[in-house]
Amino acid sequence: MKKAACILLISLFILPLSHSGNILFSHESQVVKPKDDIKKMFEKGLYTEIIEEYGNTPRASSAEELSYVAESYIRLNDFPNASRYADMAIQKEAKSARALYVKGSISSANGNHTQGIADIQKAINLAPKQAEYYTGLGDIYFAQDDYTKALANYRKAVNMPNPSEKAFYMIGAVYANQDNVKQALDTFYVAKSKIEKDKELYVTVLNNIGKIEFDNKNYKDASEAYRELTEYFPDDYYSLEKLVECYNALGYYSRADVSKARLYTAYQQGELWNTSIADMFCVDHFTVGDKDVSAYERFEVSPCRTITKYIFYVADKDGRIDSTITLEFTPAEEEGKSGRFDPVMQKGADKYGFNVVYDGNLAYTTLQSVVKDIIDGKVDPKPYVK
After folding, report:
1. In residue terms, where are the TPR repeats (predicted)?
2. What confidence category does residue 130 fall into, taking pLDDT thresholds of 50, 70 and 90?
């Protein structure tokens, strides 16, 4: 599997950072212990609230609290302030493990991987049981394609008393980037069973499982992943499209029709205009001899003129498009009639029609058989006449 096939969630930041605004603290500054709930606030994504509660009173906030403020700014894509508050935290407590971890992440994001590794390693030395720090160190190595060191740190992260959920996923990402698809898939299933808190990460794992299973033509397992994704996000139209493909490949045509109906509803409501399926969506993949066929269905419905309703792209064994077969739908002139499908084949510069017409109410499975017969040469072509 190519590297782009994985959807990665890496906590590395690549935007340039500001080095201004350093604030020095006197020994008389008031320091209080971090409140018990700031970590929970961060885990809940309450970044603005953390900044308002702790960032506005830096002298009264601990190094750990200022570190969370810095991380909150990172999550809000405000890197100058993230760097500023990380510096404040270290100035307040030079041996704050969390402050060093955050500073190391920012240093690496700023392109200084060596300093980033050094800072996070210091954090690990101070707090060797923090799984998050090993994950952060693994992320830096991962970004540099040093998968051996990345994997070693991710494995440490999942073996800590409170293991890192992200590290379970990133182990799979390492295998995927090494083109070890089987090991990646096995690891993603492990990650799926381990992730409880980070729902965004859980969805990412599902996407990866669905894609790998689909690419391996394990359509039943792929459909389970995509079905769960649509339960999380009913407007995940990409996953709905993949469900149609999976169900048709499995012969579950009634289930495919249910997913198709949801796509048609979204189309009619204008929700697909800015998507990759604004005009048509993939409904099936199948083979005929040494040919691979990808089938697409267009959303357009016309009561009064001929339209192209289905498109079948026929690829040779090298993946090149050998021909394109379309099914043109013509509505019936009389009310209550079903209309008709006319198959048309484009092969290079030549276009062909056929001496057959099919009922407009035919189910997809029958239309698929029609196309298979054309590809097999069981239906004689003729020069196309419109």
Report:
1. 131-164, 203-236
2. very high
Question: What integer best gives the mean pLDDT of the chain?
Answer: 89
| From the candidate CATH numbers 1.10.10.10, 3.90.226.10, 1.10.3880.10, 1.25.40.10, the one assigned to the domain spanning 13-128 | 1.25.40.10
Distance (Å, rounded) from C-alpha 202 to C-alpha 348? 45
CA within 13 Å, CB half, 43:
12
Residue 172 burial (C-beta neighbours within 10 Å; 0-12, 13-18, 19+): buried
> Phi/psi of residue 281, each to 5°?
-140, 155
Question: Any idea where the domains of the chain sit in the sequence?
Answer: 13-128, 217-276, 280-383
Return the bridge partners of 341, or none. Answer: 329, 358
The two tokens of residue 132 are 């998050």
Whether the CB-CB separation of 256 and 248 falls below 8 Å is answered with: yes
Beta strands in the chain (DSSP E): 280-288, 291-298, 307-315, 321-330, 340-347, 350-354, 358-359, 381-383
Q: How far apart are CA 114 and CA 330, in angstroms?
A: 66
- pLDDT surpassing 80 at residue 90: yes
Q: Per residue in 138-194, pLDDT tens?
A: 999 999 999 999 999 999 999 999 999 999 999 999 999 999 999 999 999 999 999
Q: For residues 335 and 149, what is the distance between their CA atoms, to the nearest angstrom?
A: 70
For the cut 50, the answer to whether the pLDDT of residue 21 exceeds it is no
Specify the residue for token string 């409501």. Answer: 269
CA-derived radius of gyration, the chain: 28
User: Percent of the chain beyond pLDDT 90?
Assistant: 77
Give percent of the chain with pLDDT exceeding 70: 90
**Core vs surface per residue 238-251: b (16+ CB within 10 A) or e:** bbbbbbbbbbbbee
pLDDT number for residue 19: 32
Say which amino acid occupies 19: H
- The DSSP result for 241-280, as a single string, is HHHHHHHHHHT-HHHHHHHHHHHHHHHHTTTTTTSTTSSE
Q: Are 114 and 121 in contact (CB under 8 A)?
A: no
Residue 303 tokens, joined:
């009561």
